[in-house]
Automatic annotation (TrEMBL):
InterPro entries reported for this sequence: FxsA
Upper taxonomic lineage: Bacteria, Bacillati, Actinomycetota, Actinomycetes, Micrococcales
PANTHER family: UPF0716 PROTEIN FXSA (PTHR35335:SF1)
Transmembrane portions of the chain: 17-36, 42-61, 89-114
Species, as recorded: Humibacillus xanthopallidus
Keywords associated with the record: Membrane, Transmembrane, Transmembrane helix
Residue stretches of biased makeup (Polar residues): 148-168
A family per Pfam: FxsA
Protein name: UPF0716 protein FxsA
Amino acid sequence: MTTAPGARRRRLRPTRVAAVALLLVPILEIMVMVAVGQAIGGWWTFLLVIATSALGAWIVTREGGRAWRALGQALREGRMPARELADGIVVLVGGTLLLIPGFITDVAGLLLVLPFTRPIARALLASVIGRHLLAQVEVFGATTVTDRPTWEQQETPHGPQRSESSTEVVEGEIIDED
């Protein structure tokens, strides 16, 4: 598909999404609170909001402590704590959502904080980070193993090979956790 000269493909920018969310979420929260208040009464709605915030604070304390201990354990074992860091980020975001008064943010926060739904949130976080890194590679270009122009690389069935004249050695360790 060709586009007209000067026309750009519009991307959904995170700042625009955040601006729209900052405008829509409070309006939606108020609408839901009014609907719940009409259904169960104003004082019960108020008590329910306070109770969900207290429950959220307790869950965040418990799950945040677990995530912190898992991070420390991974570091003591000398392995990359990618999963533990992702859990910490997800628990932090979920906890923040739970502490904000409102039912929509409470549901979203619970989905992020609970141990059996956290893997889904972790996978979404990995997807977002992966797409962001891929976009950065496309913008800045990727380097290859050989750091030689692609037309000079010796392709084999196993991928690019280092040139015979190279004396550079990079030591490392491969850890496969799967």
